[in-house]
Amino acid sequence: MAMETPNHTQTVAGWAAHSSSGKIVPYTFKRRENGVNDVTIKVMYCGICHTDLHHVKNDWGITMYPVVPGHEITGVITKVGNNVKNFKVGDRVGVGCLAASCLECEFCKSSQENYCDQIQFTYNGIFWDGSVTYGGYSQMLVADHRYVVRVPDNLPMDAAAPLLCAGITVFSPMKDSQLLESPGKKVGIVGLGGLGHVAVKMAKAFGHHVTVISTSPSKEKEAKQRLGADDFIVSTNTEQMQRGKRTLDVILDTVSAKHSLGPILELLKVNGTLVVVGAPDKPIDLPSFPLIFGKRAVKGSMTGGMKETQEMMDVCGKHNITCDIEVIKPDQINEALDRLSKNDVRYRFVIDIAGRSKL
To answer: How many Å is the Cα radius of gyration of the chain?
Structure first.
């Protein structure tokens, strides 16, 4: 493993954390030359994901410092490799969580690269050449074209950026649960943050009855009036939870803090499915009785493959689904991370990397 190789000749300005203090500071580093399968992207915007917060503070014990976070990246292509036929200079594109995979396993060959056991991520990963990957908190990115998607022309680049992680993270389990082609289901969304608010928008666009489950009574108005949710359950309210028992077909749990799945499972109908997409840093509680007595299933889901990610972007273009964002400048990243740790954002911070207006 090396931070750089002799092929890393392009000097790039970015922002990195150097220790578990999590403090982000300006950082100059080198990226590889644009290879035959690569595209070079001028980064316009980059969303701040909860995963970024975990990585800069080394909450999961896997951070390789210095770490340049960011995997919700939108930008414009400035260079294409000789083997690249599906992109051209000037294209509006996005890069999400994936930077490389083996390309040979059953998952890579079935467009489920995100489940390849050799998957490497856009930052804090090890690329094919042995170098450490650096993410979108930077002015320029070189990416293999197989891990790049198009951004529909009608979507603003800033509000589309978080779709590359938050969007695909909730779209994939919805597709897996047949929610795209069979409207009229009762869908529950646990948590109304970066993932949850996009999930509400998608589920409504796909024609479902949507119930938001939250610990915050203050979010009911925005869930219903701003995002279009049909119902709202305060998870700490015993009466509301009792009334909601056995009413939902599918629940997406987007919460990234430790919590028990038991009360949430009780909201599912018999044969219902709970999909966990949040990533708490401590184990979540899973009591057996709600599983057994309701013949319920609990499963996980992580982002999506590249074909599915492009499909998600196209669907968002068709339904005009974007994220509700707060745009910040790079010198506000530390403040944004601190506010994110307190859930003080509606609903996603996006860094204006290029200092431009919307494209």
So the answer is: 20
- pLDDT at residue number 313: 98
Q: Is 91 exposed, middle or buried (0-12, 13-18, 19+ CB in 10 A)?
A: middle
Give the per-residue pLDDT at 281: 77
Pull the structure tokens for residue 244.
Answer: 């909601």
What residue type is 239 in one-letter code? E
Q: Which fold has domain 166-300?
A: Rossmann fold (3.40.50)
The CATH number assigned to the domain with range 10-165+324-352 reads 3.90.180.10
Q: Answer whether 111's CB lies under 8 Å from 164's CB.
A: no
Which ranges in the chain are annotated with CATH 3.40.50.720? Answer: 166-300
What tokens does 67 get? 């770490």
Tally of CB atoms within 10 A around 237: 13
Token pair of 175, please?
A: 């597709």
Which residues are within 8 A (CB) of 152 and not within 5 positions of it... i.e. 6 or more apart? Answer: 160, 313, 314, 316, 317
**pLDDT at site 357:** 43
Contact assessment for residue 67 and residue 52, using Cβ atoms and an 8 Å cutoff: no
Residue 343 is predicted with a pLDDT of 87
* pLDDT means over runs of 10, the chain (359 residues): 80 97 96 97 96 94 97 98 97 97 97 96 95 97 98 98 97 96 96 95 98 95 96 97 98 92 97 94 90 96 96 98 97 96 92 72
Q: Which residues contact 236 (CB under 8 A, 6 or more apart)?
A: 215
